[in-house]
């Protein structure tokens, strides 16, 4: 049996996926989670062969959990399954050691085949997304620029951002200005939006 861990924050989607994948003769769902912080502890407890991770999760994101899972349980293959087919997310998933990246609008039969393929050591990537990732290029933002933009998401003031990321307000302004330039936008909110759309945050 192929043991699967499923991390998806929407209960109905998680239940439907578990039900559909459970119909496969060789699949066993050993864990269903709605929070990213639970992924590594439950994986160590249940020892899945493949972890299906959404990106947008409460707590730790699926991308961060993928990297942590590769460290904690390297024999477990990670397959990112997301609504957000963004080139930057694909690059980050590959850097985190994910074996596959699929968008949720495909048929469940395709997902079952992908699970078996990653378990066999293959890499499975949504073809349209792979082409888009190649044409988009790498993430131009540094880690600090990403930190500052992430802290600016809710329209926070420069002082709020500075306190959150432990930098001086002047340094925060410099990072914001650099990020705005690199994203070719007019202000920090546009920069946040552009970075999110490309999967850079």
TrEMBL record:
Residue ranges annotated for the Response regulatory domain, each copy included: 3-119
Query: What Pfam families does the record point to?
Result: GerE (PF00196), Response_reg (PF00072)
Q: Which InterPro entries match?
A: CheY-like_superfamily, Sig_transdc_resp-reg_C-effctor, Sig_transdc_resp-reg_receiver, Tscrpt_reg_LuxR_C, WalR-like
Q: Please, which domain of life does this record's source organism belong to?
A: Bacteria
**What are the protein's UniProt keywords?**
DNA-binding, Phosphoprotein
Residues annotated as domain HTH luxR-type = 134-199
Task: Report if keyword Ribonucleoprotein is assigned.
Answer: no
Give a yes or no for keyword DNA-binding in this entry. Answer: yes
Q: Which residues carry this modification: 4-aspartylphosphate?
A: 54
The name of this protein is Response regulator transcription factor
The beginning of the lineage is:
Bacteria, Bacillati, Actinomycetota, Actinomycetes, Kitasatosporales
């Amino acid at each position: 049996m192929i043991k699967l861990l499923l991390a998806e924050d929407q209960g109905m989607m998680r239940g439907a996926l578990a039900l559909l994948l459970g119909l496969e003769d060789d699949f066993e769902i050993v864990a269903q989670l709605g929070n990213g912080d639970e992924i590594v502890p439950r994986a160590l407890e249940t020892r899945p062969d493949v972890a299906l991770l959404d990106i947008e999760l409460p707590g730790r994101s699926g991308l961060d959990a993928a990297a942590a899972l590769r460290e904690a349980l390297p024999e477990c293959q990670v397959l990112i399954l997301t609504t957000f087919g963004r080139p930057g997310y694909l690059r980050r998933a590959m850097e985190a050691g994910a074996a596959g990246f699929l968008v949720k609008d495909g048929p469940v039969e395709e997902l079952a085949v992908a699970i078996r393929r990653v378990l066999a050591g293959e890499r499975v990537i949504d073809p349209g997304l792979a082409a888009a990732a190649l044409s988009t290029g790498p993430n131009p933002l540094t880690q600090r620029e990403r930190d500052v933009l992430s802290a600016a998401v809710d329209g926070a003031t420069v002082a709020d951002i500075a306190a959150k990321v432990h930098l001086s307000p002047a340094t925060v302004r410099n990072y914001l200005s650099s990020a705005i330039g690199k994203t070719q936008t007019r202000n920090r909110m546009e920069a946040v939006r552009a970075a999110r759309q490309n999967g850079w945050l």
